[in-house]
Design goal:
The chain is of the alpha/beta class. Helix content is 38%, strand content 17%.
Length: 392
């Protein structure tokens, strides 16, 4: 592909990404893969170049663009070399008309920028949400120690006890160490939220929103493979992916429990009042993950935010029934909005007097309400809010 053809390809992919975002369709990475699956003439260098153009354009736009071309024109601003490729040649985009629409810049749609600002996230803090993320891994303490583990690439130690950082796109999943379950891909901030659980061998621990089990595996390592660890979710397909991961990690203690939406307590009946710890990695807006999924900010609406905050509130109430006296709830969202963090926890503490906030001593993050917030700008992690609540 010529450089101009790569730009035209990026415009076409952006059109598909924008359409999917408006309709709630496939995420950008899947749209990208599908586009190239139908065009096998493109080589690996073409794919990388087009991918960079697509994601750079997504990051350059705040509100959802009118079109892929408008998004690319936003990226073109100030880049004469890129602008010169709009020459109307074979497989090239048409020449630029000074009067045609150009996508708006910014961090996010206006309402969402205001919500972030009211939550103390603006300026450089907000812009850092659109940086490219590195690749972090967690060394599996059930099988290895971070110090002395030999990997194909030397990693940078993270504040998380078993964390290592590598450049983006490091092929970790092709390593023997990954195949043998010695390492798992997990953001350093996510690892710290698991450390906040302080899970101990012999405890009964519930991961209430386990998904495919990334945090569950970290909890299993903290428990040294001893005790009862129950991974719950309402998504059968995601939960089914945990079993092979647990086998690879050497974590047979993990149980999986499929729940019905809005009827979770029916499946959890035998665990009521028995858990030392319940982790709620709650469904959320995902504002803390934009470095990895920058088009996600085009999918979020005020209605969707209200929906997920309602789920978070209900999950806190469910978790409160599962914990024995003296036990703890660890509430986590990958969001920087107070509505999904400090405000959510404060509302729970007001409505249930049996609970109080516990002090978190993490090697990253800043206090925010009754918990701690980690951000890309300050901590180099994805954005997270985490609070630990103790039943008294």
């Amino acid at each position: 592909m010529t450089p101009a053809a790569r730009v035209q390809a990026a415009i076409e992919i952006l059109d598909a990404v924008i359409a999917a975002a408006k309709a709630g369709g496939a995420p950008a990475d899947r749209v990208f893969s599908e586009w190239f699956r139908m065009r096998r003439f493109a080589g690996s260098k073409d794919r990388r170049a087009v991918r960079d153009l697509v994601y750079n354009a997504i990051r350059a736009c705040g509100p959802i663009p009118e079109s892929g071309r408008a998004a690319m024109l936003r990226l073109v601003q100030g880049d004469e070399a890129l602008a010169s490729l709009f020459d109307g040649g074979r497989h090239a985009p048409e020449p630029i008309d000074p009067a045609e629409p150009v996508a708006l810049g910014g961090v996010a749609p206006a309402w969402l920028e205001r919500a972030l600002e009211s939550s103390g996230v603006s300026g450089e803090e907000a812009l850092a949400l659109l940086d490219r993320a590195p690749l972090d891994v967690r060394v599996n303490a059930l099988k290895a120690e971070r110090d002395g583990l030999v990997l194909p690439v030397e990693g940078e130690p993270l504040p998380a006890r078993y964390g290592l950082r590598f450049p983006a796109n490091t092929p970790v999943e092709s390593w023997d160490a990954y195949e043998q379950g010695l390492v798992e891909v997990q953001d350093g901030g996510s690892q710290l939220t698991c450390e906040a659980v302080a899970a101990l061998p012999g405890e009964t621990v519930i991961d209430l929103c386990a998904g495919a089990g990334g945090k569950t595996l970290a909890l299993a390592a903290s428990m040294a493979g001893k005790g009862r660890l129950v991974a719950c979710d309402v998504d059968r397909a995601r939960l089914q992916r945990l079993a092979p991961r647990a086998e690879r990690a050497g974590a047979p203690l993990i149980e999986t429990l499929l729940m019905n939406p809005n009827r979770e307590l029916e499946a959890l009946a035998d665990l009521v009042g028995k858990a030392e710890a319940v982790l709620i990695d709650a469904p959320c807006s995902g504002t803390g993950t934009w470095r990895r999924n920058p088009e996600a900010r085009w999918r979020l609406s005020e209605k969707e935010l209200a929906r997920v905050t309602g789920i978070q509130s209900r999950l806190l109430d469910i978790a409160a029934t599962l914990v024995k006296p003296g036990g703890r709830i660890i509430f986590v969202t990958c969001s920087l909005l107070d509505a999904e963090g400090a405000d959510q926890v404060q509302a729970f503490l007001r409505r249930d007097s049996r609970w109080q906030a516990d002090v978190l001593d993490l090697p990253a993050g800043q206090p925010r309400g009754a918990g701690v917030r980690m951000t890309p700008a300050r901590d180099g992690t994805d954005g997270f809010f985490v609070a630990r609540l103790k039943r008294v």
